[in-house]
Amino acid sequence: MSSWNDIVSGTRYSFKALGDLFFPRRCAVCEAILTCDEQNICNDCHTDIPYTRFWSWPENPAEERMWSKVGIESAVSLFFYRYTGSYGHILHKFKYGCNIPLGIEVGRDLGKKMALGGRFGDIDAIVPVPLHWRRQWSRGFNQAEIISRGVAEGFASQPEGKSITVIRSLVKRTKKTATQTRLSGKEKVENVKNAFHVNQKVASRLLSKGINHILLVDDVLTSGSTLAACATPLMKYFRVSVATIGFVE
Ligand SMILES: [Zn+2]
Which of 15, 95, 195, 196 has the fewest CB atoms within 10 Å, i.e. is most exposed? Predict the structure, then answer.
């Protein structure tokens, strides 16, 4: 005899199948129609994701890039990101197409790999790089926050992992900065200088709870200027590591 839960989950599955029939969901990378079991990326594209393997690679290229700017602990990115490559669609569709489940899915993938890689076992809390309130208001969400939620879920889902809280009240972006894309290296550093402010009260409360190592999360690691500008005031209180979905070579 089927239990109530089986009936409910069976019904949900049928609704999903019915929805897929009329409004087929498509793979964020290759646009192929997804099967009911596939979430946002088809199995073929998932197998071919250009993973960095930085989670089990000490002194990886993300760390070398960050260390040239600021003395963080470790850094990790999920995949090699090219603006024009098909895997670039993942971040584009998530960020500008408001595909939140896609953002959670890639965040979860990163969190799982970090837990399995064993280099991030002493992370105490996750902090998303904040957007200026006006940009967040116009976009409707902060992409780093969605990824952070996924990373926390992925971390907690592994036997090697643990439950880690996402903290949003620790850092504020007090300066509305121009988009970094078209700026030179020097301009990027100037643009984000002093853009972030740490709430001292929140910092002291976290320290008193034994939170010492923060994982700072953003969508892409390009020059590292934004992450360095955000990590710098945090490092007066905490050890800081960095995690992103994309790594621009
Ligand atoms: Zn695909």
Answer: 15
Distance 34 CA to ligand 1 centre (A): 8
pLDDT in tens, 215-248: 999 999 999 999 999 999 999 999 999 999 999 9
Comparing 34-38, 133-137, 170-174, 188-192, the range with the smallest average pLDDT is 188-192
Q: What is the CATH number of domain 49-248?
A: 3.40.50
CA dist 137 and 118 (Å) reads: 37
- For residue 86, the CA-to-ligand 1 centroid distance in Å is 9
In the chain, domain spans? 1-47, 49-248
Report pLDDT for 11: 64
For residue 125, the model assigns a pLDDT of: 98
Cα(53) to centroid(ligand 1), Å: 21
Q: How far is the CA of 102 from the centre of ligand 1 (A)?
A: 13
Looking at the whole model, is its pTM more than 0.90? Answer: no
